[in-house]
Specification:
- This protein has 183 residues and is α/β, with parallel strands linked by helices.
- It is built from 6 helices and 10 strands, in the order E-E-H-H-E-H-E-H-E-H-E-H-E-E-E-E.
- The strands form 2 sheets. It has an 8-stranded mixed beta sheet.
Length: 183
């Protein structure tokens, strides 16, 4: 059975992007610099590449140009109330815009993934998936930096959400914590 996993890098003060939609620092990639440092990066990359589908928020999908039409060969599902733009509509056959809600988008992504994971990309879509009860796990790459402002990952949750820690990998560049969402 497929597991849906939000996988995000986040500053210690809860930000996933600075006020200008960059990831912080002079190169705009501070929250992802841990990946270049080695360590468990290969393990995480293997997990991402093994995913059978991606569920991405519209804003994230558009900022990433829909990852060129697929995410390492996996289909991409985008919940949205608006139709896709021209690139996603005509040039990216593995990108599906789902207009009937987050539950339907996740169900379609899990069906496409089969027994492989669904990688969830984007803060807003993650919040909606938690709210709807369709997000199974959260993996946070906690970066030892305080951005001070920007886009927070968990600003708009409707109620208390309890998580169980299922894995911790600590490195000098980041603490990688994986949680299971309690139901």
């Amino acid at each position: 059975m497929s597991t849906s996993i939000l996988d995000m890098s986040m500053s210690l003060d809860g930000y996933i992007a600075d006020p200008h939609d960059f990831l912080g620092g002079e190169n705009g990639e501070l929250l992802h610099d841990w990946f270049a440092a080695g360590g468990p990066a290969g393990q995480f990359e293997a997990e991402w590449n093994a995913a059978g589908a991606v569920l991405a928020g519209r804003r994230t999908a558009e900022l990433m140009d829909h990852w060129g039409g697929d995410h390492n060969g996996a289909p991409i599902f985008v919940p949205s109330h608006r139709p896709p733009g021209p690139a996603a509509r005509w040039n990216y056959p593995l990108v599906t815009y789902v207009t009937d809600g987050i539950e339907s988008a996740m169900a379609q992504a899990k069906a496409a993934a089969g027994d492989r994971d669904v990688q969830v990309r984007g803060g807003y879509v993650a919040q909606r998936a938690i709210e709807a009860g369709v997000l199974d796990e959260v993996q946070i790459h906690h970066i030892p930096v305080l951005l001070g402002a920007g886009r927070r990952l968990f600003d708009l949750l409707p109620s208390l959400v309890t998580l169980d820690i299922i894995r911790v990998i600590d490195t000098p560049q980041a603490t990688h914590i994986r949680y299971r969402v309690r139901r």
